[in-house]
UniProtKB/TrEMBL annotation:
It comes from Streptomyces cellostaticus. The keyword Ligase does not apply. Residues 22-270 form the ABC transporter domain. Signal peptide: none annotated. Keywords: ATP-binding, Cell membrane, Membrane, Nucleotide-binding, Transport. Its main location: membrane. GO terms for cellular component: plasma membrane. SUPFAM superfamilies: P-loop containing nucleoside triphosphate hydrolases. This is Peptide ABC transporter ATP-binding protein.
């Protein structure tokens, strides 16, 4: 059974709360091998009309965080602690009936794979119309007209005809557009996009990103954009939060994090990205090792087994002491601010070009 309590040690906000405020979120799964702490002490704010990009490797806790916000975790094997406020309403302690009224209405999600998220048994138009009927209480005819309107808004040609098609009759890019139409049909205040461009080719990716930005301007939605692609996040987000092994390790505006990153993990992500203007003979620099098992996460800084700069901290702090992430622009690393600046300027930035 899900345990849902408020953490006593949640960090206090610094300044006005966002439309979405998460405080000391902790999500633990019960498994046969033991408890898995998928999210460990996560805090952030998101304001209306803004986009927060969450980046990190697979297993870093990005998707779990956002599934928990919408109450989509398995209630039988999940313990959730902390605080999640959406426009001042606590979501962790909300009932399932309250969450059903919220999902698809004030908050919606675009899933990574629309082919599995869309039902193969119903037409695309019916699937878009259904949440509109449920949350707005309109007739089938009005809901169908709204579905056709939304398909047109997301750029589906001949929307009246295509609304009667089934998901398998749509291309990958069109299915993703249909998922966006379904998510936005009730004009949600919060939109969570879980790697919505991962399976798409580059030109379709750009079209989907432009579409999301245009629709955000029209509806004023707050967007949480989950991805492992820093190139996508550079074009989409206002702020960035970098996650590793269930924890946030760095956050700031998109310019701050991408132009002057402070955490060794962020340096590694940037180093591993290919560039068109780089020397073809220069190999990519992947992050050594692999992400840790969250059944037995390393003590102290969870990145220390893979960090090539831990020796510069001195002593055993990286192994024994968890680095804290301060509010606003910050990174959770034991390196001093001067060390971070020096390493980035002298060693990291020359590699990035």
């Amino acid at each position: 059974m899900t345990t849902m309590t408020k953490a006593e040690g949640a960090p206090a906000p610094t300044g006005p709360d966002g439309f979405l405020s998460v405080r000391d979120l902790q999500v633990t799964f019960s498994t046969e091998d033991g408890p898995v702490k998928a999210v460990d002490g996560l805090s952030f704010d998101l304001h209306r009309g803004k986009t927060l990009g969450i980046v990190g490797e697979s297993g870093s806790g990005k998707s779990v965080t956002n599934l928990t916000i919408l109450g989509l975790h398995d209630p039988l094997f999940t313990t959730v602690d902390g605080e999640i406020l959406l426009d001042g309403k606590e979501l962790i302690t909300a009932t399932e009936k309250e969450m059903e009224k919220l999902r698809g209405n004030r908050a919606a999600m675009i899933f990574q794979d629309p082919l599995t998220a869309l039902s193969p048994f119903y037409t695309v138009g019916r699937q878009i119309a259904e949440p509109y009927m449920k949350h707005r209480g309109v007739s089938k005819k009005a809901a169908w007209e709204r579905a056709v309107e939304m398909l047109a808004k997301v750029g589906i040609p001949n929307p009246k005809e295509r609304a009667r098609d089934y998901p398998h009759q749509f291309s990958g890019g069109m299915r993703q557009r249909a998922m966006i139409a379904m998510a936005l049909v009730c004009d949600p205040d919060l939109l969570i996009a879980d790697e919505p461009t991962t399976a798409l080719d580059v030109t379709v990716q750009a079209q989907i990103l432009d579409l999301l930005k245009d629709l955000q301007q029209e509806f004023g939605s707050a967007i949480v954009f989950i991805t492992h692609d820093l190139g996508v996040i550079a074009d989409m987000a206002d702020d960035i939060m970098v996650m590793y092994a269930g924890r946030a390790v760095e956050r700031g505006t998109v310019d701050e994090v991408l132009r002057s990153p402070q955490h060794p993990y962020t340096w590694g992500l940037l180093n591993s990205m290919p560039r068109l203007d780089s020397d073809l003979s220069t190999p990519l620099s992947p992050i050594p090792g692999a992400p840790p098992s969250l059944l037995t996460p390393p003590p102290g800084c969870r990145f220390h087994p893979r960090c090539t700069f831990r020796e510069r901290v001195g002593g055993t702090r990286c192994v024994t002491e968890r680095p804290l992430l301060a509010p606003d622009r910050a990174s959770a690393c034991h390196l001093t601010a001067e060390q971070k600046r020096t390493i980035f300027v002298e060693e990291i930035r020359p590699r990035l070009g």
